[in-house]
Write a structure and sequence with these properties.
single chain, Gyrase A, domain 2, Rossmann fold, four-stranded antiparallel beta sheet, 13 strands, disordered N terminus, binds arginine, EC 6.1.1.19
Length: about 600
């Protein structure tokens, strides 16, 4: 089935068009059409228009009412208050519009008109380090943005900017060179190493090398010299470095797998991927005067960024010892992403605590001409994950919580919830286990995505796997219940019947489903996956009211049953698609 954009215009769009033709002098003025409690929609745009035309708003509104034909689309239109329009849609128009959506495999969601190329930087853990909740947020929010943008037709290039470069590798590599068998998997009998084992190997090596580094001056000197070899591309050093990266990747991929996320190797382009560009980036900045030498370091200064002492805080591109830092890598990455990958949008899904870094990096890139007016660079900054006590999430011992432990616990709790309910519907043990994963991981993702990214949120597993309230489990149950009705309907299939009169709960559900396309467009334009989450929660809530008030299997007539099944089916498809945009699965039986 192809997308049929002309048929798939929403009721909202159709009303806006009708208003525009009733009042041609309004031109491109926004009718400010909103869903309303009093009628289906309220249009508030007349007020601004009247002001501009120095007309009486109520009179102008009355003119519109007179010029709008009622019948097919609009059942009733009346002036209210100072010049608002209250608009009620016909039952027929609701079902017809939905039928057009249902006939389209994109559910009538149009492609964006101005689609371009976005490079999105997300899910960027650090080599030889444990992943924590900050990495979870970047991964979850980034993956949702990828799906949402791709759904609107944007070309999306993923970049996992992993921390795989820097001075800390000197110590690790030197240690491994001196103890070559410590990462030798064949030697310890195992062929395949699990993610957990990989991480524990890395932890062990990290601790051992750190201990040596702190206690042995000669090792320290050798480790420092090793950093120079690494940056110079010495083959033996690079080979050892590669072993750390590979071991870490085993671990990263195991965590991403747990998260039900598909991360592809070619998209993992870490800091090291820009190593060859660093010297040139610095030279270009220095030659153009964008960066200047200050106490030996290459710095970019800004009037607006000052430290607590009032002195300017520069962006340090190259340290006085010649080493390149985080900023040099990010600036080189911009050159690559705009120059080679031809991106017109760059998104960085990174902790809000790195905001100053990105402001300075973007500004530097603009001064250098690597970012111009045709390219938008944004940090999709996310807030901190807090514990139940409202403080940054830590273990009781004050340590960073391991992401894997959290995910395992979420799955464990979810499995208990699923198991408790499973008897009634006779789930097999296998289904209980896989549902437990979908529910547990879904709970973690949804809790993250249902709050707007910039805000902090509390990591509270009890709340996350609760069956009531704004949780993914609630949505997953709404979906499964819906599917069970469709199964029970047997031979009777969903069929749209525009000739039928609708109950209020049917109208409310239908008009809500109809907004899916606009919600996706907004979420894409504003980088706001929480808008999709809010839409889905409202959808499940309206569906639940519909379910209580409108018998489906015991409907009055065969046509009514078919029409209600049609609403069920479209709700289910919208839920599955919406949840998939958020990276969450909807099991058929739960
Ligand atoms: N690896 C970094 C961290 O763990 C995040 C990288 C963000 N991306 C970037 N292009 N700087 O904090």
């Amino acid at each position: 089935m192809a997308s049929v954009p002309s048929l798939a215009s929403s009721v909202n769009q159709r009303v806006a068009d009708a208003l525009a033709s009733a009042l041609p002098e309004a031109g491109a003025t926004d009718p400010l059409l909103r869903r309303s409690d009093r009628a289906d929609f309220q249009a508030n745009g007349i007020l601004a228009l009247a002001k501009k035309a120095k007309a009486n708003p109520r009179e102008l509104a009355a003119d519109v009412v007179g010029a709008i034909p009622t019948g097919d689309l609009i059942q009733e239109i009346e002036v209210s208050g100072p010049g608002f329009l209250n608009i009620t849609i016909t039952d027929r128009a609701i079902i017809e519009t939905l039928a057009a959506r249902a006939a389209d495999d994109r559910l009538g969601v149009p492609y964006a008109q101005n689609a371009g190329t976005t490079v999105i930087d997300y899910a960027q853990p650090n080599v030889a380090k444990e992943m924590h909740v900050g990495h979870l947020r970047s991964a979850v929010i980034g993956a949702a943005m990828v799906e949402i943008l791709e759904f609107t037709g944007e070309k999306v290039i993923r970049r996992h900017h992993i921390g795989d470069w820097g001075t800390q590798f000197g110590m690790l590599i030197q240690y491994l060179l001196e103890h070559p068998h410590e990462l030798d998997h064949k030697a310890d009998g195992g062929e395949e190493v699990s993610g957990e084992e990989a991480m524990s190997n890395l932890n062990r090596l990290y601790k051992a090398s750190r201990a040596l580094f702190d206690s042995d001056e000669e090792f320290k000197t050798r480790a420092r010299a090793r950093v120079v070899d690494l940056q110079a591309g010495d083959p033996e050093t690079l080979a050892m470095w590669q072993r750390f990266v590979d071991e870490s990747k085993i671990y990263f991929y195991s965590v991403f797998h747990k998260l039900d996320m598909d991360i592809q190797d070619p998209d993992v382009v870490g800091e090291s991927g820009y190593n060859d560009m660093l010297a040139e980036t610095c030279k270009l900045l220095e030659d153009s005067g964008v960066a200047v030498r200050s106490n030996g370091a290459l710095c970019v200064f800004f009037d607006e960024y000052k430290g607590p002492d009032g002195n300017p805080t520069p962006l340090i591109v190259q340290k006085s010892d010649g080493g390149f830092g985080y900023a040099a890598t990010d600036l080189s990455a911009i050159r690559n992403r705009v120059g080679e990958l031809k991106a017109d949008t760059l998104i960085y899904v990174v902790d809000a605590r790195q905001s100053l870094h990105f402001k300075m990096v973007f500004e530097t890139a603009r001064r250098a001409g690597w970012l111009n007016d045709g390219v938008k660079a944004v940090q999709l900054a996310f807030g901190t994950v807090l514990g139940k006590d409202g403080k940054p999430f830590k273990t009781r011992e004050g340590e960073t919580v391991r992401l894997v432990d959290l995910l395992d616990e979420a799955v464990e709790r979810a499995t208990a919830v699923v198991r408790e309910k499973s008897e009634k519907i006779g789930l097999s043990e296998e289904e209980i286990v896989s549902n437990g994963q979908y529910v547990g991981i879904g709970a973690v993702k949804y809790a993250d995505l249902s709050t707007s990214a910039g805000r902090d949120y509390k990591f509270d597993l009890d709340q996350m796997v609760s069956l009531t309230g704004d949780t993914s489990v609630y949505l997953q149950y709404a979906y499964a219940r819906n599917r069970s009705i469709l199964r029970k309907a047997g031979e009777t299939r969903p069929v749209a019947h525009p000739e039928l009169a609708l109950a209020p709960a049917e109208r409310a559900l239908g008009l809500h489903i109809d907004q899916f396309g606009e919600v996706v467009a907004d979420a894409a334009a504003e980088y706001a996956p929480h808008k999709v989450a809010a839409f889905l929660f409202q959808l499940a809530t309206l569906y639940s009211t519909f379910f209580d008030q409108c018998p489906v299997l015991k409907a009055d007539t065969a046509e009514q049953m078919e029409n209600r099944l049609f609403l069920c089916d479209l709700t289910a498809r919208t839920l599955t698609k919406g949840m998939a945009l958020l990276g969450i699965r909807t099991p058929e039986r739960l």
